Amino acid sequence: MASIGRNLLLLSFSWCFLTCPSYSDTDTDTILQGQEMRDWQHLVSANGVFRLEFFSHGTSGKRYLGILLNIYHWPVPLGKGEVWVANRNNPILDTSGSLLIDSDGNLRISSSGSSPIILNSVQASSNASATLLDNGNFILRELKSNGSTGNILWQSFDYPTDTLLPGMKLGINFKTGHTWSLTSWRSDDSPASGSFTLGLDRNITSQLVILWQGDIYWTSGPWHNGSFEYVSRFSQDSNPEFRYFSDENEKYFTYSVDRSHTYSMYKILSDGEIMEEWNNIAPFGVCSVAVDPGDGSNAGCAKEKVLPECRDPNIMFAFEYGYMSTTIGFKFPDRNNLNLDPRILFHS
Question: Is 25 helix (H, G, I), strand (E, B) or coil?
């Protein structure tokens, strides 16, 4: 009986080895349909430039699937290394997350106790694979029966978060209505969508804008003779090389680098600044409406908003303290009129 049990176990193991999808812990840049990449596993692009993995920031323990600069490729960690986040507004609360291409051809993030997040809207007609490229783009594409790859069904470059990489676009597709734009993190520890968005102005054909809570905060000025009016460093004659394209189907701004430069990227930060990272970390101060630095970086800044006439600029918010009563609820000092006093900000 023991011999029969061992044979059955061996037979079951052999069948699963041949038929069950598996994911290897060794570095690979691709997952195939039916494979599952779990929270503690990762993909690494072919030449080790980027890695795709689940990560946490700060002390919250929330988990995000993102593309990061590969710390094993770069000699020095560079600032906040995340360049793309798949589930920035839908964090996973534990380490149960996984990424897989399901039987329907969906690129899906799953976790216990939460609804799955489907990344692609176009499904594969037969089989599919997902690959992390050395330019930082994560692509889902059809996989033909002979092993060759077919059409791209989805790519992370079409859904940027806070970082612009060479080959990405900032602009608008007129046919689909899709926009390519950057939105800041909510804070240094939270990749959730923040208050600042960088993209092309829908109204002025060739102008970059930063929107703050929907209002214009900064403009680049129009593209003219190969550069933006207020940002001469964004030029078609520079390196990186910047380009602006427009036709009846789409308009967008993009850039490229030559092979002599390891990488180049731009981040929109949670305070509305643009961080320019080009073989090092260099802050690129875009806009300061309160103080003019005198270096021209204020060009294109929107003016400060004027307070409503009913507001006295000398009125400041302040904390007020009260207590909870089991009979009357919240109780505050009698001198305060909660309906009229503009100082009331918080009560405890």
Answer: coil
